[in-house]
Write a structure and sequence with these properties.
This protein has five helices and six strands. The chain is an alpha+beta fold. It is globular.
């Protein structure tokens, strides 16, 4: 998804832990169209069942839990340090006074990048829902107008 289809990392995570159809029905129309396309194209890649995974790679890390939050995931930040764990107490054992602690929503990725390192995968492409949707499906005329945006 990342290398071959050049999806942004955030969208690839959404394909792995896609929202439920009932959640998609409640989304704004552009976002709903994007999620329907992602589920149609990448449905076989969707992870089912309870999980919380942390993937480290040269240049950062991604933490992701299942789409109905059957497995816990907690994240914390203190300065440039980001930590994830299954329990807040595990984070506080290593980082007693984090600046910010949060529990990501179900299927919401926690993405941390190492400042100054090149991004080893195509993840700097941040398109709006309409442009990504056409990039996934290839059927909308807006595909010709999709551009990269510096973040």
């Amino acid at each position: 998804m990342l290398r071959r289809h050049k999806l942004p990392l955030e969208l690839a995570c959404k394909a792995l832990a896609a929202p439920l159809w009932s959640e998609i029905d409640r989304m704004p129309e552009q976002e709903a169209a994007l999620m329907r396309s992602v589920r149609a194209v990448y449905g076989p890649a969707m992870l089912n069942g309870p999980f919380a995974i942390v993937l480290g790679f040269n240049g950062g890390m991604v933490a992701l839990n299942d789409r109905i939050k059957l497995r816990p995931l907690v994240a914390a930040r203190s300065g440039s340090l980001v930590m994830v764990a299954s329990e807040e107490s595990a984070i506080r054992a290593v980082m007693p006074s984090p600046e910010h602690v949060w529990a990501p929503k179900a299927g919401e990725p926690v993405i941390a990048r190492v400042k100054g390192m090149d991004w080893p995968i195509h993840g700097d492409l941040h398109l709006g829902p309409a442009e990504v949707s056409c990039a996934v499906t290839g059927v909308e005329p807006a595909c010709e107008e999709a551009v990269e945006v510096a973040v």
